[in-house]
Automatic annotation (TrEMBL):
InterPro entries: KdpF (IPR011726). GO terms for cellular component: plasma membrane. The keyword Membrane applies. The chain crosses the membrane at residues 31-50, 62-84. It holds the Pfam family Potass_KdpF. Keywords: Membrane, Transmembrane, Transmembrane helix. GO terms for molecular function: P-type potassium transmembrane transporter activity. This is ATPase.
Length: 89
């Protein structure tokens, strides 16, 4: 039987091409890509919040809490930068 080396080809070619495409698109389309990355990060945060709530909250509420936490963190970082580097703004 012939062994298929699909994982090696997939990892070496597609990921490199994908990351270079994302890098080139980042300069032109920052907001949609930032929203996409935020939603992907929420995929990690939502199950943690759902597990911490012990099944009391609905999944929609958990997603809302995750997005609210991300927005809050972004505002805190923005305000931190504005307070300590006001000459940039």
């Amino acid at each position: 039987m012939k062994r298929a080396d699909l994982p090696e080809k997939f990892l070496s070619m597609d990921f490199i091409q994908t990351f270079s495409d994302i890098g080139s698109q980042w300069r032109r389309h920052k907001l949609p890509l930032a929203i996409f990355i935020g939603l992907c990060l929420n995929l990690v945060v939502a199950p943690v919040v759902y597990a911490a709530a012990d099944g009391i909250l609905e999944r929609r509420s958990v997603w809302a809490i995750g997005i609210l936490g991300g927005v809050t963190l972004a505002v805190v970082i923005y305000l931190f930068v504005v307070v300590f580097q006001p000459e940039r703004f």
